[in-house]
Amino acid sequence: MAATADDPGPSRAGTGTAQGDPAPRRRGRRPGGADTRAQLLAAARVEFAERGYDGATVRVIAERAGVDPAMVNHWFGGKESLFTAVLDLPVDPGAVLADVVPGDPERLAERIIGRLLEVWDATGGAPLAAVLQSVAAHDAAARMLREFVSRVLVAKVVSAVAPDQRELRAGLCGSQVLGLAVVRYVLKVEPLASADHATVIGAVAPNLQRYLTGPLP
Amino acid sequence: MAATADDPGPSRAGTGTAQGDPAPRRRGRRPGGADTRAQLLAAARVEFAERGYDGATVRVIAERAGVDPAMVNHWFGGKESLFTAVLDLPVDPGAVLADVVPGDPERLAERIIGRLLEVWDATGGAPLAAVLQSVAAHDAAARMLREFVSRVLVAKVVSAVAPDQRELRAGLCGSQVLGLAVVRYVLKVEPLASADHATVIGAVAPNLQRYLTGPLP
DNA sequence: GTCTATACAACGATAGAC
DNA sequence: GTCTATCGTTGTATAGAC
């Protein structure tokens, strides 16, 4: 866990700030053994837990891991996906949602539910239960997921279609989606747990659509 | 924490309203009360976990505890409330829902959400998180809650108003209610977490109402 | 030689200080 | 308003593994 910067020591002529001289790292591929990816993951776990999703910065995480911030992009594709990897989510919600948003806004809910059902049916309930468990157990996990859900959902989905009250709508959408996941995959309440996708979509999508674009008081 | 039958303790100061409750008048010899109650709880935990809500019987639970089956009624008010106590639920869902059902069926959802908000706001998110945690962690807990939710919800709420597909409707209602609980009290997503009751009711009740009495595909 | 992990620099966006 | 600091991200050159 201890993200020990590998501290190669010498060289690095004073480019710019002669102060501190924090991490003179060589360029190029590191000598074998240094697992940058794992170090980034470990550093990200600590930072996300301590400061939340928004509070943690890619730069600090990279510094803690002793590597360049660009490594986050290289290994994970960005802050969002790094977070997904930290929480060990089965899929990257941002990516999934992003490619489901384009299209008729009045049918967005159908596409969202349909896609989520595909993903969840493929991975089963285990990852969902794991996430739920850690969220219920650790306040830090709840905070991380809260900020992440708010940010990603609002930015990538709700803002694309919702006329107003975007944060509230995002929370409501989250409640319906999360509740469906719990009841179908963790609690396994029948007949909802075994219903085919068309049935679930027909039942849930209209309600989700109201949260997205319908009238709110 | 859990809503249990009134503790027929030594100094039960009578509130004026005489309840139809089978309030045990403490006459005669005082049993090793707390002991019986605890033994029943322990026995019920085992039985519910092993056989589920439906599979476990009051008779067997009482036998395992070494007491008369009537003690379940005495100490907990019935199988349902015993189960509630075992899960350490903040309230007895059966009781709460039962007294909210009478009235305009088309406004049932408003009454349900309103009442749940009162209860949850009073107890805070801790009990909810505890239930979620055990449900996510232990398959037995998930099974118990599943059967309980199906049975009680279908029997006491959905059957009272829903025209068809009662089990499916019950599952859908469960998903919305549970999701709301998670997002508002465990994840604490704003502004939903701090929204006043009227706002939440206005936002969620119409969706819940559709699950209860609206058209399903 | 190729391939890839790496560091550095710089860009557009955004939030806060002045 | 402008200025500044900082964020996440991208482009590119380079060093080491193969």
Number of helices of chain A: 10
The biggest sheet of chain A amounts to:
none
H/E element order of chain A: HHHHHHHHHH
Beta percentage of chain A is under 5%
Structure description:
- Two copies of one chain form a homodimer.
- With 217 residues, chain A is an all-alpha fold.
- Chain A folds into two domains: 36-86, Homeodomain-like (Arc Repressor Mutant, subunit A), CATH 1.10.10.60; 89-213, Tetracycline Repressor, domain 2.
- Helix content of chain A is 64%, strand content 0%.
- Chain A contains ten helices and no strands.
- Chain A has helices spanning 36-55, 58-65, 70-76, 79-87, 93-98, 108-123, 126-137, 139-161, 166-186, 197-213.
- In chain A, helix 1 (36-55) runs antiparallel to helix 2, helix 8 (139-161) crosses helix 9 and helix 9 packs antiparallel against helix 10.
- Chain A is globular and about 55 Å long.
- The model of chain A is unreliable at 1-23 (pLDDT under 50).
- Chains A and B meet through helix 7, helix 8, helix 9 and helix 10 of A and helix 7, helix 8, helix 9 and helix 10 of B.
- Chain A binds a DNA duplex (18 and 18 nucleotides) through residues 15, 25-32, 36, 57-59, 67-75, 78-79.
